[in-house]
Design goal:
The chain is of the alpha+beta class. It has helices spanning 35-40, 63-78, 85-100, 111-114, 121-144, 149-157, 159-163, and strands at 4-10, 23-30, 46-48, 58-62, 105-109, 166-167. The radius of gyration is 15 Å and the shape is globular.
Length: 177
């Protein structure tokens, strides 16, 4: 079994009493929380109860703003990958799926990733929400504005690990609708 980060969407945030309905599947990524997931939960980032695990290790954020940030970065990355058919297909798949599964919030399930380390999962999610995610957003915003060329070049060179997640209506952790 691969440890994965799972990204969903919903029209409300999970809380201690209930899981939102419906929960739509966005994507999952093995062994890491990729840049794409960090950016999608990069606007209005809030730690919430997990829909899968007991501790509060979920992250919710504004869907429209997170999707727009990711799409803006994909455009900037694409300016150096015009002849890469794989990248073009990845972008088309990502955009179509985000349009199809649109909701009010993204909800990122981090449990399997933060549990891979020997740190406290709750503290790990707090570090993600207050450090890693805002740092990724700042790097992306600078690149989009044309002020972070070295970082953008490094993202282009390894775009598959940052954007090549599994997008589907059914993920390992799916919820009945």
């Amino acid at each position: 079994m691969a440890n994965r980060s799972c990204l969903h969407s919903a029209d409300s945030m999970p809380n201690e009493a209930e899981i939102p309905e419906p929960v739509r599947c966005i994507s999952e990524h093995n062994w890491d929380i990729p840049l794409a997931h960090k950016l999608m939960v990069g606007r209005g980032t809030t730690v919430v109860p997990s829909m899968i695990w007991n501790p509060p290790i979920g992250i919710a954020a504004d869907y429209a703003d997170g999707a727009a940030l990711l799409c803006d970065l994909l455009r900037a990355v694409g300016k150096g990958l015009e002849d890469d058919a794989g990248f073009a297909a990845c972008v088309a798949t990502t955009r179509a799926h985000l349009d199809k599964q649109q909701a009010t919030y993204f909800i990122l399930e981090t449990g399997e990733i933060v549990s891979m380390t020997d740190q406290d999962p709750v503290a790990g999610v707090q570090r993600l929400a207050s450090g890693d995610i805002p740092d990724a957003v700042a790097q992306a915003e600078a690149a989009i504005a044309g002020h972070n060329d070295d970082w953008l070049a490094s993202i282009r060179a390894d775009w598959q690990s940052h954007f090549g997640s599994f997008y589907s209506e059914t993920l390992y952790f799916s919820f009945s609708t």
